[in-house]
DNA sequence: GAGAAAGTAAACAAGT
DNA sequence: GACTTGTTTACTTTCT
């Protein structure tokens, strides 16, 4: 018997259970082992979320644009005639806004509900789009201006050089500049989060790679170096993007401590930095440099420690001067950027699909057709790949989402869910403001079809299963059925999770076994359930706070705090669970574990009951069996479940004065 | 690093 | 005897 079970476990756990531990740790190798730590390491390892990718892309685009400007300013203009008149090149784009966030995308997903996420992204995209457009517009104006200047100079000066060539090259650059602009606008449009203004976006996406070819870059470097005086004048007039952090001080990267807050910006700009520049009147933080952060050089692959900016600049000029190596590194970086852009586009598509799904009605049928043409670079766990009949590799970030393509995706998929098909150290949903009932209500279809492990503990799931029933009692087998019915994930590995279910039922005092005529049913002792939960979401108040502030979306804080608060009322949009009274009741929750508090309120009964109305509005009825029948065994807490004020004589309840888990 | 919480595996018993 | 249900223990992992 047991042997069989064991063997079944082994056979049925290609992705989880036994192999889970390793799987759980590995998949996140690049992206978060299910927790903050993992997420952080994921960022450090270079796995970037779409948002980060977008930021990175924007940064790179701006850098490229700057290089064009430099090239234009130094290579195409006559130093003698233009240097003094070099117009200020204002770059309104907020680099700070593009700074990486302290919060991990997984955390964001945990914190924010889908609509909130979408709103966030939309706002972000809108801001970026606006700034990009503004920026590009100015860039073009500058280019035109310089073109005119150049033509003027060409008329005045004898033809020492083939000016036509220069103009041609310049016009090409202008064209490339426009292409670059359109590329980014298209990228934004492709994400579906912004609409491309009419009259734009006619240039094919493929133009970007040609926007700056390595040869251009190399040439640019040389010209930049050769035209030091010009660049000095330029940078003093605010060419450096970093000076524009003042546009959005609330987004300041300086406030964002993690390593990624200083993305290396591999371009020729580095050679421009001099101590004099840093002492300029810009609001740039003293000692800051795009390639300098945390006391070390951020040049790709360098990481040389520099005590101060001066030393760094010296280091930069010596170690990363214009040479073949640096140029090659730039090329590599550009390729990286291009790859990331491609990846970003694909990830964005997926995000869009997920967002679209999140507005789908829970009952809406969603076919398993339409596989996304997703990135192939992602590494997948075995189980994940097993999941996809299309055979397409799907990125790990949505080991879940792709399964139910385009319209599928849990609203608040935890990082664990996203990255692990196997076991998760859950708590996530509970801690991150996602009551299970809400999550399930919103993503019922998703979990039902996607082979994704729900980010809930067994205890939570069991409780949910029981509470969903009118009688709030289930037999073990019914609990099994609920699991398999609700979650595709639990249609596999049956031996393992069933064992876990039984284990949890026995282990937790909150689950009360009630003898019945036909056998035994399990009920939930809400009081015990609440007791077993930590009174606070340890660290979460600050964590959430930091998350929000760390988002770097300063102006959005309010809205997202509100959104966060809203996420505490998950049932508001749940068709089956409506209780508006809870909202007001929850507003005071503040820094506590929201979900915990929410349910705490419920358990207290006196306050606004929440969660499933049926859970708290109806008394428990033991199936068919008069309550007296259970006197012998554990008559226990059916009443306690109902009344919430436990007068339980059960042996298990006698333990409640003791540490809950005295078993272990 | 300690402790708690949770997941997994397994042994075992009792009942059907 | 096979299977289910239930309990318990041990161990590991994750998180605070």
UniProtKB/TrEMBL annotation:
Positions of region (Disordered): 1-44, 242-289, 596-664
Composition-biased stretches (Low complexity): 242-252
Q: Where in the cell is it found?
A: Nucleus
- Give me the stretches of Gly residues compositional bias: 28-37
Q: Which residues bind DNA?
A: 453-526
Q: Does the keyword Signal apply?
A: no
Q: Pfam families from the entry?
A: Forkhead (PF00250), FOXP-CC (PF16159)
Q: Name one GO cellular component term.
A: nucleus
| Domain Fork-head span(s) in chain numbering | 453-526
> Which positions, given as ranges, span the membrane?
none
Which named protein is this?
Answer: Fork-head domain-containing protein
| Organism per entry | Anas zonorhyncha
Classification lineage: Eukaryota, Metazoa, Chordata, Craniata, Vertebrata
């Amino acid at each position: 018997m047991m042997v069989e079970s064991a063997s079944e476990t082994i056979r049925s756990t290609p992705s989880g259970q036994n192999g889970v531990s390793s799987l759980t740790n590995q998949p996140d190798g690049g992206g978060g082992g299910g927790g903050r730590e993992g997420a952080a390491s994921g960022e450090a390892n270079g796995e970037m979320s779409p948002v980060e990718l977008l930021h990175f892309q924007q940064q790179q685009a701006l850098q490229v644009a700057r290089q064009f400007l430099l090239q234009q300013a130094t290579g195409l203009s006559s130093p003698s005639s233009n240097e003094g008149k070099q117009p200020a090149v204002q770059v309104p784009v907020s680099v700070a806004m593009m700074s990486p966030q302290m919060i991990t995308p997984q955390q964001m997903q945990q914190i924010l509900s889908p609509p909130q996420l979408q709103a966030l992204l939309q706002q972000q995209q809108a801001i970026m789009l606006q700034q990009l457009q503004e920026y590009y517009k100015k860039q073009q104006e500058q280019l035109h201006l310089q073109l005119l200047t150049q033509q003027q100079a060409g008329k005045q000066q004898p033809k020492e050089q083939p000016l036509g060539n220069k103009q041609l090259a310049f016009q090409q650059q202008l064209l490339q500049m426009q292409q670059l602009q359109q590329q980014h606008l298209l990228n934004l449009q492709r994400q579906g989060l912004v609409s491309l203004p009419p009259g734009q976006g006619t240039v094919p996406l493929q133009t970007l790679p040609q926007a700056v070819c390595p040869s251009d870059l190399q040439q640019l470097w040389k010209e930049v170096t050769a035209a030091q005086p010009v660049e000095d004048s330029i940078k003093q007039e605010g060419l450096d993007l970093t000076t524009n952090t003042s546009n959005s001080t609330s987004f300041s990267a300086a406030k964002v401590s993690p390593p990624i807050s200083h993305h290396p910006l591999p371009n020729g700009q580095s050679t421009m930095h001099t101590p004099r520049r840093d002492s300029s009147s810009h609001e740039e933080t003293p000692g800051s440099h795009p390639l300098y952060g945390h006391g070390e050089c951020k040049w790709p692959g360098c990481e040389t420690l520099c005590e101060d900016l001066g030393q760094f600049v010296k280091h930069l000029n010596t170690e990363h001067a214009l040479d073949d190596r640096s140029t090659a590194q730039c090329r590599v970086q550009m390729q990286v950027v291009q790859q990331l852009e491609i990846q970003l586009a694909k990830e964005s598509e997926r995000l869009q699909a997920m967002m679209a799904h999140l507005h789908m009605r829970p009952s809406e049928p969603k076919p398993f057709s339409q596989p996304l043409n997703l990135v192939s670079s992602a590494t997948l766990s075995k189980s994940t790949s097993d999941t996809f009949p299309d055979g397409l590799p799907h990125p790990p970030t949505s080991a879940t989402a792709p399964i139910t393509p385009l319209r599928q995706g849990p609203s608040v998929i935890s990082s664990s869910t996203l990255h692990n098909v196997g076991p998760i150290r859950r708590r996530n949903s509970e801690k991150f403001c996602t009551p299970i009932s809400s999550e399930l209500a919103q993503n019922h279809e998703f979990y039902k079809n996607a082979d994704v492990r729900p980010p809930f503990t067994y205890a939570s799931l069991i409780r949910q299963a029981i509470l969903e029933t009118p009688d709030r009692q289930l037999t073990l087998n019914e609990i099994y059925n609920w699991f398999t019915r609700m979650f595709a994930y639990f249609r596999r590995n049956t031996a393992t999770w069933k064992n876990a279910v039984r284990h949890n039922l026995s282990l937790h005092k909150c689950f009360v076994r009630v003898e019945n005529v036909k056998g035994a049913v399990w009920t939930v002792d809400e009081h015990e359930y609440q007791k077993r939960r930590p009174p606070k979401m340890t660290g979460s108040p600050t964590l959430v706070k930091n998350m929000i502030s760390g988002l770097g979306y300063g102006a959005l804080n309010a809205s997202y705090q509100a959104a966060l608060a809203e996420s505490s009322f998950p049932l508001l949009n749940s068709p089956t669970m409506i209780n508006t009274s809870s909202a007001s009741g929850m507003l005071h929750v503040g820094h506590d574990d929201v979900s915990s508090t929410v349910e705490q309120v419920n358990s207290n009964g006196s306050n606004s009951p929440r969660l499933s109305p049926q859970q708290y509005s109806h008394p428990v009825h033991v199936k068919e069996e008069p309550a007296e029948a259970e006197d012998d065994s554990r008559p226990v807490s059916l009443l306690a479940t109902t009344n919430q004020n436990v007068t339980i004589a059960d042996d298990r309840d006698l333990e409640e004065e003791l540490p809950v888990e005295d078993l272990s």
